[in-house]
Design brief:
The protein is about 65% helix and about 0% strand. It folds into 2 domains: about 35 residues; about 70 residues, 434 Repressor (Amino-terminal Domain), CATH 1.10.260. It is mainly alpha-helical.
Length: about 130
């Protein structure tokens, strides 16, 4: 009987690395990609759960307002006189300058559109 451990059944990590290097690198890469998207999902969920129905501000874009109020972006764009899909990154201040309105008028138009959409959604659920 030998006092040395039996290496016949046990494969060391070094042996596995030498034999399956590509497999281990691929697995590590897949693990990192999964971790990246999991963290991104959690950060996104936490951020937007705390920014629901945010008070409107000049720096916000139509997309940000749409996300915060859970309203379609195109509906909000129409409410401030923009073509749907145009001006995707314009802030409310930039929209006001382009349309010749004040920021307050833009905010009022957006809030009216938000209330109308929510009323339509509430009526549709009943």
């Amino acid at each position: 009987m030998s006092l040395e451990p039996d290496r016949g059944l046990r494969v060391g990590v070094g042996d596995f690395w030498r034999r399956h290097r590509v497999l281990l690198v691929g697995f590590a890469f897949a693990l990192l990609v999964t971790l990246f998207f999991a963290v991104r999902l959690v950060v996104h969920a936490v951020y937007w759960s705390q920014h629901r129905d945010a008070e409107l501000a000049e720096w916000m874009t139509i997309g940000y307002v749409a996300q915060s109020y859970n309203i379609e972006r195109d509906d909000l764009a129409r409410a401030v006189g923009l073509e749907p899909g145009s001006g995707r990154r314009l802030t409310l201040a930039e929209i006001a300058r382009r349309t010749g309105q004040s920021v307050d008028e833009i905010e009022t138009a957006l809030l009216s559109a938000i209330q109308a959409e929510r009323a339509k959604d509430t009526a549709g659920q009943q």
